[in-house]
Amino acid sequence: YYFITICTYYNRPYLVGKNRDVVAQFIEQIALTTEGVALDYYVLMPTHIHIILIRDHCKLKLGEVIRRLKAVISKETHIKLWQPNYYEHVIRDERASKRAMVTTR
Predict the structure, then answer these.
(1) Number of helices (H) and strands (E), helices first, in the chain?
(2) pLDDT over 70 at 100, yes or no
(3) What are phi and psi of 68, to 5 degrees?
(4) Is the model's pLDDT at 95 over the cut of 70?
(5) Crossing angle for the helix pair 62-77 and 17-28, to the nearest 10 degrees
(6) Which residues contact 9 (CB under 8 A, 6 or more apart)?
(7) What is the share, in percent, of the chain residues with pLDDT greater than 70?
(8) Contact by Cβ (8 Å): 51, 42
(9) Closest CA to 16 of 87, 77, 101, 102
(10) Which stretch of DSSP H or E encloses residue 54?
(11) For residues 53 and 2, is the Cβ–Cβ distance under 8 A?
(12) Using H for helix, E for strand and C for coil, what is the string for 16-47?
């Protein structure tokens, strides 16, 4: 399990309206389009997203999964949507899982 935070470009509130719908659509499809990746949970905020992904026998590194997700969303929205990097934290136990869930609320 990976807890991931991706911020918008310069923390601008891009994740509202139609952009929000596009981002949600591609996040929800990630398990269908990326073998070995499952979506556990996600929250969209105006300036960032929190995602909990499960990687199980995925041939792609986590960075490549996130890069592809960000690229397809940016292409669909036609704007520079994302900061160049992202934050990740490996959820190793129940305590870390509870901390991640508190962060997403």
Answers:
(1) 4, 4
(2) no
(3) -65, -40
(4) no
(5) 140
(6) 80, 81, 82, 83
(7) 89
(8) yes
(9) 77
(10) strand 48-55
(11) yes
(12) CHHHHHHHHHHHHCHHHHCCCEEEEEEEECCC
